[in-house]
Write a structure and sequence with these properties.
Elements lengths: L20 H7 L10 H21 L9 E5 L5 E3 H17 L2 E6 L6 E2 L7 E9 L10 E9 L10 H4 L6 E9 L3 E6 L4 E7 L4 E6 L10 E3 L10 H12 L3 E2 L5 H11 L2 E4 L10 E2 H14 L3 E3 L16 E2 L1 E4 L1 H19 L1
Parallel strand pairs: 3-5, 11-12, 11-13
Antiparallel strand pairs: 1-2, 3-4, 5-6, 6-7, 7-8, 8-9, 9-10, 13-17, 14-16, 15-17
Length: 345
């Protein structure tokens, strides 16, 4: 019997399309010997839901699914139709996957108990961040955070399964729906980004081992409430202007964070006199992005304290967020601490 051995030269006429998300997850499964494949399957479930939401997002203008749904969520924000659709899609995928016992979603007032006592994981998710940008065709995103439950498998979920600090995350990520759709995630072993190839229906590894620049020249903040910022932050912003840094802010958290992660910069959503606790949610926005930031060599604080060390006390708890290139976060944190000390003194 004649045998022909494959060599790379045999495939010069057909370029390599790269490593798919599914294959990459399988390759990295040994990083989690305790998981027995459940975490890998959970990440694949999220990837599948992201593909469906990407499809819905791309056809929103043609299918009458843009615009307001008519309800408000627990945050008091008007729900968009795509908010509701994305929440359904991710909840359905996580329910059918069988690895999750509970979901915390921005769109639901209470914890969603999936009645799956054998599930080992809790997922906190903002199904569609940037709702105000949907109708104007600006990039939006999904943010997710994954925790291992702390109570015994087989028992009902308890508050301690949900109220975990961000440092307990086993995985976190985001999906950016923009000029291209990207899924970026970490399992505590670096950060990797995958770009969606619609013609093949697959996410392909496009940004391996992502690293944030240590410093940058971009600052992202809504300066409309400048007069309500604390003195240390105002001083930092004045320094940015003196150094002629670029102000880049589109009001879509995932898109702003993604740009600064790649190019170097800082994203700030601070506490103000009107909103002393800030507006971003700790469990399913700040924690996930802080975990990704630190794994990429960046930093995330609430002004002074590390985001991942904050012990949550309520389901939809809010927090200020300063996140991005490590030197920029250090600088603004030092100024805030200094000016607060002077005020106290």
């Amino acid at each position: 019997m004649k045998v022909k051995y494959y060599t790379p030269s045999d495939s010069k006429l057909a370029y390599s399309v790269g490593v798919t998300l599914d294959r990459f997850i399988k390759m990295k499964q040994d990083d989690f010997p305790f998981a027995s494949g459940e975490l890998s399957q959970l990440l694949r479930d999220i990837g599948l839901a992201a593909k469906i939401v990407n499809r819905e997002t791309n056809r929103a203008g043609l299918a009458n699914i843009a615009g307001a749904f008519g309800n408000t969520n627990i945050q008091g924000e008007e729900q968009q139709k795509l908010d509701v659709i994305a929440n359904i899609r991710f909840t359905r995928a996580l329910t059918k996957g069988g690895e999750v016992c509970a979901i915390v979603s921005e769109e639901d007032d209470e914890v969603i108990d999936l009645q799956n006592s054998s599930g080992k994981y809790v997922v906190a998710i903002d199904p569609l961040d940037g709702s105000s940008n949907i109708d104007v065709n600006i990039s939006i995103g999904t943010i997710f955070s994954i925790y291992r439950r702390v109570t015994p498998v087989g028992s009902p979920i308890q508050p301690e399964d949900i109220m975990q600090p961000g440092r307990n995350q086993v995985a976190a990520g985001y999906v950016l729906y923009g000029s291209s759709t990207m899924l970026v995630y970490t399992t505590g072993h670096g950060v990797n980004g995958f770009t969606y190839e619609a013609s093949l229906g697959e996410f392909f590894l496009s940004h391996p081992d992502m690293k944030a620049p240590q410093n940058g020249k971009i600052y992202s903040i809504n300066e409309g409430t400048y007069n309500h910022f604390e003195p240390g932050l105002r001083e930092y912003l004045e320094n940015c202007k003196k150094l002629e840094y670029s102000a880049r802010y589109i009001g879509s958290l995932v898109a702003d964070f993604h740009r600064n992660l790649l190019k170097g910069g800082i994203y700030i959503y601070p506490a103000t006199t009107k909103s002393p606790s800030g507006k971003l949610r700790l469990l399913y926005e700040a924690n996930a992005l802080a975990f990704i930031a630190e794994q990429a060599g960046a930093s995330a604080i609430d002004g002074e304290e590390r985001i991942l060390d904050i012990q949550p006390s309520s389901l939809h708890q809010r927090t200020p967020l300063y996140i991005g290139s490590i030197e920029m976060v250090k600088e603004v944190g030092a100024l805030i601490k200094k000016r607060r000390a002077l005020t106290v003194g």
